[in-house]
Design a protein that fits this description.
This protein has 212 residues and is mainly alpha-helical. Helix content is 70%, strand content 0%. Helix 2 packs across helix 3, helix 7 runs antiparallel to helix 12 and helix 9 packs across helix 10.
């Protein structure tokens, strides 16, 4: 690995998470899916933490162990691909076809594709439920920081470099716009995983192409 990337603080890539960590992730995702089902049926105001725990098949104690609140419990569904996207960005260079980032992430996220209908339902809910909107935007705010770190490691620039920050913001905003667009487009039709991938590729190409 080049010395400039080491200087930027590249963290070693790890293998598969330990079993206990995977089990925790499974529980968090089950709680998140249960919450989305109930929010879709009853709305956020009409759903309690107790309702979500029952729907997920966990105790209230378990719910609070894995979640900090009714709306925030959906966050795991919104962050599945952030780490994979950040790792893909470490290998991307300006001038490369940015759509390759989507291809690399897409082929590594079988679980995310399985959860896609639930995620898109959640994104649609976030357009009219302020609490969920806040969680959605916070997830992207955190993703932007992760993307900036990846781009800094890739280029050897400081993470607070303006060019790093602008590129991270462009990529992050493009991905958010693509997901929201696809969620709206599929509101009354079958969810189309490849259609989302196409929207993400087009959004990233548009962002990288600038205002020309």
């Amino acid at each position: 690995m080049p010395s400039d990337r080491r200087a930027a603080g590249t963290a070693p890539r790890t293998g598969r998470p330990p079993l206990s960590e995977r089990r925790r992730a499974v529980t968090r995702n089950e709680i998140a899916r249960a919450a989305v089902r109930l929010f879709s049926e009853r709305g956020v105001a009409g759903t309690s933490v107790e309702d979500i725990a029952v729907e997920a098949g966990v105790s209230l104690r378990t719910f609070w162990r894995y979640s900090s609140g009714k709306e925030s419990c959906v966050r795991p569904l919104l962050t599945t691909g952030t780490g994979l996207m950040a790792r893909a960005l470490e290998d991307w260079r300006p001038g490369d076809d940015v759509s390759g980032i989507v291809d690399e992430v897409w082929h590594a996220t079988d679980e995310a594709v399985t959860d896609l209908p639930t995620v898109l339902a959640l994104v649609r809910l976030a357009q009219r439920e302020p609490g969920l909107r806040a969680v959605w935007l916070q997830a992207h705010d955190d993703a932007e920081a992760a993307f900036a770190g990846a781009l800094a490691r890739a280029t050897g620039r400081p993470v607070d470099d303006l060019r790093v920050g602008v590129r991270a913001a462009m990529i992050n905003s493009a991905l958010r716009a693509a997901v929201e667009y696809h969620a709206r487009r599929t509101a009354d039709s079958d969810d189309d995983a490849e259609g989302l991938a196409d929207a993400m590729r087009e959004a990233l190409r548009t962002a990288v192409g600038g205002l020309a």
